[in-house]
Amino acid sequence: MRALDGATRAGHDGDSVDGRGPAITIQDDSASGLPGLTELMRDEQVFPTRRTRADSAIRRRRRRKAWIIVAIVVAVVLGSAGGYAAWALNAPLPEPTVEWQTPDVSVPPAATIALPVEGSAAISVAGADDYLGAEASGIWMTSGSADPRPMASISKLITALVILDAKPLAGPDDPGPTIAFDETDRDLFDEYYVLGATVAEMPRGTSMSLHDALATILIPSASNYAEAVSTWAFGSQGAFVSAARRWLEANGLTGTTIVEPTGLSPRNTSTPSDMIAIGKIAAANPVIAQIAATASLTLPGPGTMSNTNGLLGTSGITGLKTGTLGENDYTLLYTAILDIGTDLPLSVTGVVLGGFSRESVSNGVVNLLDSIRAGFHSVPLIGRGDRVGTYSTAWGSAGQMIVTGSASIRTWSDTPIKVTMDTSTPQNYADGESVGTITWSAGPNTATVDVTLDGGIAQPSAWWRLTHPGELG
């Protein structure tokens, strides 16, 4: 108590005992002395206990929130993992890498067309525009001079066409009007025989249908019948020549000249191109075409007659007319049907003017037609089971691509053959699954074969799917 009293006194002086600052003043109040201190100490013990309980409650609430968040995160992670796995195991696979080789195709060498080397020649080919070009149906190829040459007995073909223009028949079975020949007509036999021309018998009192008279003009090439029938049709030879010239003009045949009906005159001339046009007109006339294709015929009066065109039936030749003017001047206007292994055969019209002999001209024409036919061929493209490529997958599996059948294509000469391959992604990667086609094209023709998997391709493992998300579709 004395120490406290001293402190109290010092405090009263306002200064600390050591003089360093204000002193702490403690009141001595008997009413609040020791009991007050005890209360103060009690409060100091109670307050910390209350704060601890509050902090614990806060911590407990925080821990509950944390566990809730953890549970949510775990649930999300687990849910996402399950969704990812389901996606990865079912997602579309990446397209495989395709490596394919164009099948080797041996294209034949260019066709060599054996044009006649004698005189002047021309040829037209209809029905092959897709192979030879549209110009082939006009004048496809020529050799020799394009100038007019004597056409000899091919003149009789024009004579028959001019007569039919004035006296038409309804068709090859229509006999037409009857012609009665008189003594003047009979005398023509002797006149032409002396000239060395081909003639046919015309007994006294002979009469025949116009159809049969035209056949006698064309099949044995009877000059006496050519003059007799043309005079009957037009009244005189002058009238016939005028009609023939009008007919030539009407058909645009400006390179052809007619001065008489038989071809004995070397002034009956024509160009190779006009001859092709005349041949097409004749072949389009059913009466002329039927007669020109007849190898032999027997009629009352002239008897049995053989066609001067000995090539009928050879190399597809169907007509039309031969001609000879002297020993070394042979002509041939011909038509032919060539089977080249396509849906439709080719229709050929050709001419040779001024050939050396009947034999050389005939051989030249046969060689020409055979060379055209040989220019068309079937080119083998591929065989069944041939391998054409490989599928390689991102997961390391591979499979072979093979064709399901063989193929060939019809082409002309050395026509380029184009090939395209269309591939598709396999759905099941199974053996025999279709994965594309190969198509070849040449001219108007195409050939296609299917491509399949040989042996299939192994599917990727689940582990590969789960660990390669970037490569899935």
Describe it for me?
The chain has 473 residues and is of the alpha+beta class. It folds into 4 domains: 28 residues, no CATH class; 60 residues; 103 residues, Peptidoglycan synthesis regulatory factor (PBP3), Domain 2 (Sandwich); 255 residues, Beta-lactamase, CATH 3.40.710. Helices cover 37% and strands 23% of the residues. The protein has 12 helices and 19 strands. The strands form 6 sheets. The protein has a 6-stranded antiparallel beta sheet with strand order 1-14-15-19-18-17, with no helix packed on it. Helix 4 runs parallel beside helix 7 and helix 6 runs antiparallel to helix 7. It is rod-shaped.
Features:
five-stranded antiparallel β-sheet, six-stranded antiparallel β-sheet, 473 residues, disordered N terminus, alpha+beta, 37% helix
Widest sheet: strand order? 1-14-15-19-18-17
Number of domains: 4
Task: Give the helix/strand class.
Answer: alpha+beta
The CATH superfamily name of the largest domain is DD-peptidase/beta-lactamase superfamily
Strands, count: 19
Total helical segments? 12
What gross morphology would you assign? rod-shaped
Supply the CATH class of the largest domain.
Answer: Alpha Beta
Write down the overall mean pLDDT: 86
The gyration radius over C-alpha positions equals 56 Å
Question: In angstroms, what separates the terminal alpha carbons?
Answer: 95 Å
In short:
The chain is α+β, with helices and mostly antiparallel strands and 473 residues long.
